Amino acid sequence: MNFKDKKLAFTIYLYLGALFITSLVVCNLIFQKFFYWKPFGDVTLFGAPLFEISVGLLPYPITFLITDLISEIYGRKKANQVVTAGIFASVFSMGIILLANKVPAISASPVNNSDFSKVFALSPIAVLASMLAYLLAQYVDVAIYHFWKKLTKGKHLWLRNNFSTFLSQFLDTLTVVLLLCVFKVLPWNLFYGLVISSFIFKLIIAFIDTPFLYLFVYMFRKRFRLAVGEEIQLEM
User: What is the pTM of this model?
Assistant: First the structure.
């Protein structure tokens, strides 16, 4: 690969990392708003609406698509680097929110102390819960992805994409909802409904993003003349 191609490959990697980190941080900032998603009508489970989910789930599946794409094209090490950068960004954002919540608002401020605290005061707890779940899920996702990639010798992209995502998404959903209930951010009576609703939503998104992963991988392989299973080596 010539210098021009390496520069382009690094630039794309940088932007993919930026999309990943932005999606992750935004998830933690908007999680307190819930909506009723009903693709199959009104369904209840354990006395709670099955498809009540947080808007924080909307950008979250993007993170798994990006790590799978980076894993496929750039390798396991680069995927884990993005995951680690996401942890740093989450901790940093939590610190900024804590500081902003402590600073008193002036009388002319469009957002007063009470409103700001109501929206953002729980964000540090959400970040902590999300970060712990995210650590577990993302590293599991990358590990399982490369296990299947090695086992299938770079073939059957749909297999490693979905198998890695299914298990990691379940672990993520279970862990984050459990921690939010333990920290009393959410009531326990929503636990089962939120876990199942969130997991089903993520599974549907995982199926939907598989064609996009195939498209992006095809574009990368064509542009950088990569063989099946071949990865771009970025020297850092």
Answer: 0.79
